[in-house]
Amino acid sequence: MVENRPITNILTHLVVIGGIIVTALPIWIAFVASTHPVENLLRSPIPLLPGGDLVANYSEILSEGSARVGGIGVGPMMLNSLIMALVITVGKIAISIISAFAIVYFRFPLRMLFFWMIFITLMLPVEVRILPTFKVVADLAMLNSYAGLTIPLIASATATFLFRQFFLSVPEELAEAARIDGAGPMRFFRDILLPLSRTNTAALFVILFIYGWNQYLWPLLITTDESYYTIVVGIARMVNAGDTVPDWNLVMAATMLGMLPPVVVVIVLQRLFVQGLVETEK
Amino acid sequence: MAEVSIRNVTKVYPNGFQAIHGVDVDIEDSEFLVLVGPSGCGKSTLLRMVAGLETITTGEVFIGRRMVNKLEPAERDIAMVFQNYALYPHMSVRQNMAYGLKVRGMPKKQIEEAVRRAAETLGLTELLDRKPRQLSGGQRQRVAMGRAIVREPQVFLFDEPLSNLDAKLRVQMRIEIKRLQERLGVTAVYVTHDQVEAMTLGHRLVVMNEGRAEQIGTPLELYECPHTAFVAGFIGSPAMNLLEGRLETKGVRLGREIHVALPETILNGALNAEVLFGVRPEHFEIVPPEQALLTIKSDLVEALGADTLVHGHSDGMSFTMRLPGSRHVSMGEDLPVYIAPENLHLFDLETGSRTG
Questions:
Q1: Which residue of B has its CA nearest to A192?
Q2: Do residues B160 and B186 both lie within one domain?
Q3: Tell me, what's the pLDDT at A282?
Q4: Nearest C-alpha neighbor of A125 from the set A91, A158, A84
Q5: Could you tell me if B281 and B247 lie in one domain?
Q6: Residues B189, B250: one domain?
Q7: Same structural domain for residues B187 and B254?
């Protein structure tokens, strides 16, 4: 694995650099676009170096600009996204860790049936069950509400499955030692399992936060009231601004702002995230 | 401090497998009882039933005259040391030891005091703030014991606690466990598959085989007078030589040619019975040819220093002998040997039970 020949060194670096360019270029272009006046972006070639309108564009999108192109301000949309992403993430983790705990540590009738029922829903992406879900949410009068935005997305087979696999890898003797120490099931869950799941939870938090933040189809369907728009929906609306040419510079500025919270979450939880994915320490 | 009674206990798993076929043992107060046997003999299952980690199918377990069949492990006033130690990985040594007391709601001051005392007993004071992953195998083992003694339980249960350690550490920890148990005077039940560990630790041993207690006795009783061929083969290292033979007048015939004369007291007048003839490796004596019972041709010599192990054969049968290290044996040498009658064991070939 570890070879130190110059050729392989150069080659691996080329591959890495190539990969970074492919991934980073669109983001760079978005950033550059957000620093130019809109006229520069409408004629080719599109600029590849930042222009001088950075402050102007961002202050415009943060003040009244986005209301003009998107309906409501970037701030409220970001707040909506944040609420939605956080509720989905926390809800998913809370529910799935508890159901995984039940499935792994308790013997109850039809346990495996329930497990497989949860597992099978893995095969059904949101898009497949979106119409019935919409009907249910509409009947429950949850359209245009945070509850409607988040609750249907909380049930999660993936997270349940991940926690189940992690719990299975925790040595049985730990549970037995806790029993002998007099800790009941909930005490064992709180004192032993939760702390042990810390890194897994962090990894899931990152993944689920990005998942929640990037939701598009569901918020688009469920919200007609502009005050519930999320940033992702808002950006899409800015682009489809009817007959007029979209203000690309402002759209890109909003995009850059919309990317920030997931980036912050990744950076903050990065250490735990990587540990959670690789570590097997028991 | 308490006596433990296991009364006619059986265990049948839901899949129909019967792991324990009715075991009866009475463990005295402050006694160190070792359950020993090959893997799959049910020794761990029996221990876990005493601990309350396995349900008891039939029979009763008493700890300190209290029937505990229906009690949770925590209510049985026991402490258990697991093979993999089962330390809580995210807690420091101190927290690991304190956890059981904390759950019981003991006041903080008392917990601190109890942990300090237990740590002192085991030489863990320096390590109290470390996490289990920063400890060596022997230290983890000691923490596991600390977690057990800090609660001052009535019974210690050990489930192969030394099998994850290297040979040298195992001997050292074995002595520590023995000392600790003697000093604290707590009743202990200890499971192991290692017969040396069993012999050195236990006041009494229960040799288990296929879910049954083959024999219960002190180490020397088991060594000197095994009740069954299984116990005879299991206790002692190297294992007892067990050879098929047939009883004749005044002796037993092994193979075609060897006739070993036996006193009438051993034979009990039984004739022509098929038997297993047992003799321990250390009970062969090299004698002048005219006094020899049989002659063994050596074909492999293992010089261990204090002893010399000689593997040899005679009339198509293999023997292992343990001779003093001072006796030099070369390969292919014919060794005239004698076995004192009191060192002979006879077992029924069919049932394996002792006949003489």
A1: B88
A2: yes
A3: 40
A4: A158
A5: yes
A6: no
A7: no
- pLDDT tens readout for residues B134-154: 999 889 999 999 999 998 899
Distance from the Cα of A118 to chain B's closest Cα (Å) equals: 27
Of B38, B35, B44, B33, nearest in space to B11 by CA = B44
Answer yes or no: do B149 and B278 share one domain. Answer: no
Residues B329 and B191 in one domain: no
Kindly report whether the global pTM for this prediction surpasses the value 0.95: no
B194 with B281, same domain: the answer is: no
Q: Which of residues 177-206 of A touch B (CB under 8 A)?
A: 177-183, 187, 191-192, 195-196, 198
Query: Mind telling me how many Å the CA of B213 is from chain A's nearest CA?
Result: 26
How, if at all, do strands B155-159 and B334-338 pair?
unpaired
Residue B350 binned pLDDT confidence (cut-offs 50, 70, 90): confident
A170 Cβ under 8 Å from any chain B Cβ:
no
Domains in chain A with CATH codes: 69-278 (1.10.3720.10)
In this complex, is the C-beta atom of B71 within 8 Å of any C-beta atom belonging to chain A? no
- Residue of A174, A180, A182 with shortest CB distance to B88: A174
Spatial contact of B308 and B323, defined as CB atoms under 8 Å apart: yes
Q: What is the pLDDT of residues B192-233, one digit of tens each?
A: 999 889 999 999 999 999 999 999 999 999 999 999 999 999
Overall domain count for chain B: 2
Q: Write out chain A residues lying below 8 Å of B90, CB-based.
A: 192, 195-196, 198
Residue B69 domain-assigned (yes or no): yes
Condensed to tens digits (0 to 9), the pLDDT of residues B41-71 reads 999 999 999 999 999 999 999 998 899 999 9
CB contact, 8 Å: B55 with chain A? no
What pLDDT score does A92 carry? 93
The answer to whether B73 contacts A282, with C-beta atoms less than 8 Å apart, is no
- Residue A103, C-beta contacts closer than 8 angstroms, at least 6 positions apart: A111, A114, A115, A118, A160, A164
Q: What is the pLDDT of residue A244?
A: 72
A–B interface: beta-carbon pairs under 8 A: 61
Phi, psi (deg, nearest 5) at residue A153: -95, 0
Domain that holds residue B116: 4-228
Same domain, residue pair B105 and B139: yes
Using CB atoms, pick whichever of B52, B72, B82 lies closest to residue A177. Answer: B82
**Is B236 within a domain?**
no
Residue B150 maps to which CATH number? 3.40.50.300
Mean pLDDT rounded to a whole number for chain B: 90
- Inside any domain, residue B354: no
Q: Which of B174, B195, B228 is the last residue of a domain?
A: B228
Report whether A88 contacts A154 (CB < 8 A): yes
Measured CA distances, B153 to B30, B33, B55, B150 (Å): 12, 16, 21, 8
CATH number for position B312: 2.40.50.140
B73–A180 C-beta distance less than 8 A: yes
**Which of B186, B202, B228 is the endpoint of a domain?**
B228
Question: Is the distance from CB of B278 to CB of B347 less than 8 angstroms?
Answer: yes
Beta-carbon contacts of A164 under 8 Å, excluding residues fewer than 6 positions away, are A100, A103, A104, A115
Does any domain span residue B96?
yes
Burial class (CB within 10 angstroms; exposed 0-12, middle 13-18, buried 19+) of B300:
exposed
User: What pLDDT digit, counting tens, does each position of A135-150 carry?
Assistant: 999 999 989 999 999 9
- CB within 8 Å of chain B, chain A residues 70-89: none
Does A70 score more than 60 pLDDT?
no
Coil/strand/helix, residue B67? strand
